Amino acid sequence: MSALSSLPPALASLSTDLTITDSDIIAGYLRDESRFTEAGTPLAVLAPRTTDEVATCLRACHEAGIPMSTRGAGSGLSGGANAVDGGVVLTLHRMNTVVEIDRANRLAVVQPGVITCDLRAAVAEHGLYYPPDPGSVDFCSIGGNVSTNAGGMCCVKYGVTGDFVLGLECVLADGRIMRTGRRTRKGTAGYDLTGLLVGSEGTLAVITEVTVRLLPAPGQPHTLVASFPTLDGAGQAVAAIVDAGITPSMLEILDRTTVQAVDSMTRMGIGDDTAALLLVQHDGVDAPDVLAEVEQHCAGHGADVVVSSDPTEADMLLEARRQALPALERLGDWLLDDVCVPCSRITELIAAIEGIAQRTGLTIGVFGHAGDGNLHPTVIYDKTDPASRDAALEAFDAITQKALDLGGTITGEHGVGRLKTEWLRREQDPVNMQIHHLVKQALDPTGILNPGAVLLAQA
Amino acid sequence: MSALSSLPPALASLSTDLTITDSDIIAGYLRDESRFTEAGTPLAVLAPRTTDEVATCLRACHEAGIPMSTRGAGSGLSGGANAVDGGVVLTLHRMNTVVEIDRANRLAVVQPGVITCDLRAAVAEHGLYYPPDPGSVDFCSIGGNVSTNAGGMCCVKYGVTGDFVLGLECVLADGRIMRTGRRTRKGTAGYDLTGLLVGSEGTLAVITEVTVRLLPAPGQPHTLVASFPTLDGAGQAVAAIVDAGITPSMLEILDRTTVQAVDSMTRMGIGDDTAALLLVQHDGVDAPDVLAEVEQHCAGHGADVVVSSDPTEADMLLEARRQALPALERLGDWLLDDVCVPCSRITELIAAIEGIAQRTGLTIGVFGHAGDGNLHPTVIYDKTDPASRDAALEAFDAITQKALDLGGTITGEHGVGRLKTEWLRREQDPVNMQIHHLVKQALDPTGILNPGAVLLAQA
Q1: Of B191, B411, B439, the CB nearest to A189
Q2: According to CATH, where is 3.30.465.10 located in chain B?
Q3: How high is the pLDDT of residue A458?
Q4: Amino acid A6: pLDDT
Q5: CATH code 3.60.15.10 for A2-91
Q6: What percent of chain A has pLDDT over 90?
Q7: Which option is the CATH number for B1-217+428-459: 2.10.109.10, 3.30.465.10, 3.40.190.10, 3.40.50.1370?
Q8: Which of A4-8, A79-83, B284-288 has the lowest mean pLDDT?
Q9: What's the CATH number for A222-405?
Q10: Mean pLDDT throughout A326-351?
């Protein structure tokens, strides 16, 4: 009660059931999983259960000028959910209901706190499929996925989170509730405010309900793993697959550093002569034919190839991909990047990163979504050593710059957050950034929504 | 020259090569193909050849406060390209170059005046596929497609125009040039300004270049036509197809009125006992299996079914769909609507429209995209008869209201234009409309871009 009584009146007037001021509990809500991002000390954590409660929280913060960071599961990797000094953290984990599954119209309505894998499981019971599968699918939330326009391994065939969002309910900065979008497959009635909110990382509104499009359940995928003696061979195989008009449902790459880290952890015996590993799945009725063609392209570029249609065996084949980040984490502290380049440039990017690793003296493992050019270079450093930290940041910057130089983007699926605000200004032209600020002003005129994320104070 | 000298100085100072003031020529640029929309008398038509010339035109109009309607091919059906009194019409038909086709990264860069079928043909030469295929595909432009987020028959499998737009170059109201988006498959660097501009119908910026995502060329489609003795049978067959998890590459419906109109024009002999016609295509490697399954669902609901894998025969089978609007046009003046409802409600909508036709004493043919619930009820009336005009508007309103009542939207693919500005306010909540106006103000503070389209003067 003493903590509560020290709150500004606007917050103190909120139901105590909504408001968490215990500093031990607050400590768990200060930041997401990113590195090198700032997190402040909030006054309180607010945990609403309904849209009306979210509106109440926003009205209070708006009137008192209290900044708000919104948080889903806190699994973000760019600092988008980090707390702000003197602000509040709004956590949506209590709003975790799958409101509706409409099989006839292939859609679902969900609250933002629903864990992504729970939505996937719920719709699977109706023979339906929600494709987006970020690496954090087992613990991230739909609201966070929408806010960052999250991707995953499915994107090469199915697209990203935003491709599945039909409509939203949200609460604006001043507490007003707004609906956007529709329940129909098509619609062009007015501006695409749904699309504007997707990927806006809590800076324009708080999303309180999401209507997602679903697909029929796909077939059981067939799986292929190809071990290449050279990086160029893997790159040429990817190019050949694309050139042949093949769109597999998964096309992942692991570089030599990552393969060796996985091998040293798991003793799989894949590390010795492997310069790059491709992992490919296809879930169409033509899976056997498609993977036979993929196998030819891989073998033609020098790879050893294993193919399986057995789910258990496929699961084992994918283990190397699943263990990529855990294996790299064992090597030290990690700084995970997320850049996306045109597919044809991925081997150039990986080769450049090898050079950056040599120059900075750091280990950098690269893995990610070769099928759409979205890679996750992972810089290993020692956070207790200032020189190592500096080197990690230097490597991170060099990688991000290289992605831009190759015609790519600074973030494929993690978002800008607080990690890449400076980089956003390098990617987008000054006029584009000015329009960003005008849009922000239009929706959040007093700037209380997630200040410091996406946009810097000045255009 | 006398016409030019009567122009305001801002326009008179533009290169005469850009400026058309001959009233006979201007007459061809006054409006699109919509009915019941207002078109004013412009001062001039401006026909730039480059982005810089577009910027010059906008700077001139911005400084002098001259409103501008932007026009692609003028094939729109909602009045979005109509001229405004005292304004200019900016026509982009001279900017009609396919700038780049990048096969390795499956993308193309095109100017807005490129005719949609020309882009489709150009990329097909590289073994690639640009799916969006509005009914006007042979004469509409990519810029217009992007501005209205146009659809077509492909959408049930492939999605709408916006699903293929990766990035844009545009000119803002004050003449500044802005780039949005990217060339990569994925990207979440900042707000989705690309998506905001898609479907904004020339009210937020003038689009001067479009980067589109492409797909590998699909297989030769197999085609099925099913003639149903009852409307309910057709609706139940569509529901059964969806329920079976089938996503064909085309799933079109024609109602009894449309079938009879087609039959009376073409003497195909399909009209007598047909209450509804379904036309289905599938272009996957599994086309034979999928269409066999579709055939079962159709036959199970009482249909006579014809299937063909032969392209020439398929072309003949689709003739009824192609002739739907021409056949209805023969019956009188027409007012073409564009509503979209959840797929499960299409027979309810069609049945309601039969009732509306009886009540108003008008012929109303319904055809469209059953697979995504996007139908085009076409009201036949006599424009020389005020009572018939009133009845047509009454029917149009009743149909649009019914679509909203069924959980649908006022426009699936034609856009709001000047035809449905009042209806937009009925579909969207007041807060949503206020945000529309704030976004409009942010991008076009003096309101010169296409005034009267999408938004009414006041929220």
Answers
A1: B411
A2: 1-217+428-459
A3: 67
A4: 81
A5: no
A6: 94
A7: 3.30.465.10
A8: A4-8
A9: 3.40.462.40
A10: 96
CATH 3.30.70.2740 spans which residues of chain B? 331-417
Full 3-state SS string of chain A = CHHHHCCCHHHHCCCCCCEECCHHHHHHHCCCCCCCCCCCCCCEEECCCCHHHHHHHHHHHHHHCCCEEEECCCCCCCCCCCCCCCCEEEECCCCCCEEEEECCCCEEEECCCCEHHHHHHHHHCCCEECCCCCCCCCCCEHHHHHHHCCCCCCHHHHCCHHHHEEEEEEECCCCCEEEEECCCCCCCCCCCHHHHHCCCCCCCCEEEEEEEECEECCCCCEEEEEEECCHHHHHHHHHHHHHCCCCCCEEEEEEHHHHHHHHHHHCCCCCCCCCEEEEEEECCCCHHHHHHHHHHHHHHCCCEEEEECCHHHHHHHCHHHHCHHHHHHCCCEEEECCEECCHHHHHHHHHHHHHHHHHHCCEEEEEEEHHHCEEEEEEEECCCCHHHHHHHHHHHHHHHHHHHHCCCECCCCCCCCCCCHHHHHHHCCHHHHHHHHHHHHHHCCCCCECCCCCCCCCC
**Residues in chain A closer than 8 A to B400 (CB atoms):** none
ipTM of this complex:
0.97
CATH code given to domain B218-326: 3.30.70.3450
What CATH number labels A98-216? 3.30.465.10
Q: Does A121 touch chain B (CB under 8 A)?
A: no
Q: pLDDT at residue B314 above 90?
A: no
The tens digit of pLDDT for each residue in A41-67 reads 999 999 999 999 999 999 999 999 999
Give B153 to chain A, closest Cα distance, Å: 12
Identify the CATH number of the domain defined by range B331-417.
3.30.70.2740
pLDDT, tens only, A413-426: 999 999 999 999 99
Distance from CA of A156 to the nearest CA of B (A): 8
Interface test with B, best of A184, A433, A439 (most B CBs within 10 A): A184
- The string of pLDDT tens digits covering residues B146-202 is 999 999 999 999 999 999 999 999 999 999 999 999 999 999 999 999 999 999 999
Q: 413-452 in B: which are within 8 Å (CB) of A?
A: 413-416, 420, 423-424, 427-429, 431-432, 435-436, 438-439, 441-443
- pLDDT over 60 (residue B6): yes
Task: Select the residue from A133, A161, A186 to test the B interface by mutation, using most B Cβ atoms within 10 A.
Answer: A186
Tell me the per-residue pLDDT of B90-110, one tens digit each, with 9 for 90 and over: 999 999 999 999 999 999 999
Q: Which residues of A touch B106 (CB under 8 A)?
A: 242, 343
